[in-house]
What we know:
The complex is a heterodimer of chains A (340) and B (112).
Chain A: E1 5-9, H1 13-24, E2 28-32, H2 55-66, E3 71-74, E4 79-85, E5 88-93, E6 98-101, E7 103-106, E8 110-112, E9 129-131, H3 132-139, E10 154-161, H4 177-191, E11 196-201, H5 211-220, E12 225-228, E13 233-236, E14 242-248, E15 253-259, E16 261-266, E17 268-270, H6 274-281, E18 308-310, H7 320-339
Parallel strand pairs in A: 1-2, 1-7, 2-3, 7-18, 9-16, 10-11, 10-16, 11-12
Antiparallel strand pairs in A: 4-5, 5-6, 8-17, 13-14, 14-15
Helix pairs in contact in A: 1-2, 1-7, 3-4, 4-5
Chain B: H1 20-28, H2 40-44, H3 46-50, H4 55-64, H5 70-74, H6 82-86, H7 93-105
Amino acid sequence: MQTKTIAIIGAGPAGMEASASLAKLGHQVVLIEKKASTGGHLNNWHHLFPDRRPAKELLQKLKQEVNHSNIEVMVNTAVHEVKQNDYRYELVLSEKNVINANAVLITTGFELFDAAKKEEYGYGIYNQVITNSDLEQLFQADNLAAQFKKPVKRVAFVHCVGSRDAKVNNHYCSKVCCVTAVKQSIEFKERMPETEVFCFYMDMRMFGPYYEELYREAQEKWGIVFIRGKISEASQTRDGSLQIKAEDTLASKPLRMNTDLLVLMAGMVPAEGNEHISRQFKLAIGDNRFFKSKDNHFDNQLSDTPGVFLAGACLAPMNITDTISQARAAALRIHEYLTN
Amino acid sequence: MWGYKIITTNQIDYDKNNRAIRNKILALEPSLRICIACGACTATCTAGNLTPFNIRRMNVLLQRGEYDDLKSELGKCMLCGKCTLVCPRGVNLRNLILKTRETLLNDECHVL
Ligand SMILES: Cc1cc2nc3c(=O)[nH]c(=O)nc-3n(C[C@H](O)[C@H](O)[C@H](O)COP(=O)(O)OP(=O)(O)OC[C@H]3O[C@@H](n4cnc5c(N)ncnc54)[C@H](O)[C@@H]3O)c2cc1C
Ligand code: SF4
Ligand code: SF4
Ligand code: SF4
């Protein structure tokens, strides 16, 4: 078999796992990452739902996998231009490097919704307001309580920040933030058992294995209180504390609450460079602004452009389990494409 | 007459309720169909923070064909539009309230 080269754009869990699978099948892979290191969003998370294993564990495993003689990893590298000739793609990269690829896999993932856009929650204005991603960073510290200027007696988690929201033109559900809120509320309680923890949700979407169980554990073991209502605003009171307003929809009454910390469950948005990539490869973009597959059921890893494949959170918000499955599925489809 | 009074059922009687009015209002302001009952409108509502008026609940009742409370309750709305500003689904609440008021006041409806 003549060796074929596959260019993979984006070295998060999807790109790394697909590289490893293709390398094992005997192909040459060039894995292109715009940032200084591989791993994507795994670098930002502390422990993972549903089993709460350290994200580092997964990161190490993926790094070992891509440490393969068939894989060339190029970090700090962007794709500037693409030319197509007879089912081959010529990719012009940073510093005028050129790669000739027989197939291309797009694994550019997602970006966190910019929570400052929801001005009513005061992210970037009040220092008691943080995001899910900020909290993952705080969990890295040994002493969580010491990370806050004032004692945190109460914390409220806000679901659906920047998702399911026509006001920011994101109609989709980001899928992982309900379970992230449940996971983080438990982690908070473990570290600071005296703190009262509330989750304000519109719908609890516990779609994955052991997610519902985690939700139950949060109620049963940790006494976390779930209130069904969207927080309409957060504002600072005269004494400098934060006041939130919601409707407790199950009680049919407006609710007011002072809280020491507000954690915003920022959702997922498509990666910034996707428009450029879609133009270069003539890829379709869906109504949700993520990449669009050729077929949602049978050809989810295929795009409308022959030889260009898609996997992971660049297609839609998803968890790591689905990301890894898609990466392997994409590797198989690429292998079929190149060997036929 | 004999010391007993008619007890109105607490049930939503979906078979008996006259949903023609609801359908008429929905035709005038279709965006109510996409409400997900999150309550952000009620949370921010000027009238609802002072009185027991609850715009989210009123809209659910309207959709079920339960109009009894609506006419008196909707009078409490000050049409300030704050609810419309916070709605994550983009329901045009202010216009909905106006159209509901108009429709319920219309004699042709025979409901009140
Ligand atoms: C707050 C939060 C917590 C989460 N916690 C969990 C959890 O506990 N368990 C779980 O299963 N899932 C979790 N997830 C989901 C998980 O992060 C994703 O499933 C996973 O990161 C998707 O992997 P990916 O490779 O598709 O994308 P990413 O991780 O986003 O990786 C994409 C990579 O591509 C690179 N890239 C982007 N554009 C370009 C370009 N143009 N050129 C070159 N490189 C590019 C990026 O720099 C990045 O390295 C969480 C998500 C959020 C938002
Ligand atoms: S997963 Fe939950 S918090 Fe996230 S967008 Fe969906 S419903 Fe909202
Ligand atoms: S804010 Fe909008 S979606 Fe939420 S309950 Fe009110 S009308 Fe419905
Ligand atoms: S318009 Fe009426 S229902 Fe809406 S917030 Fe103002 S008073 Fe409340």
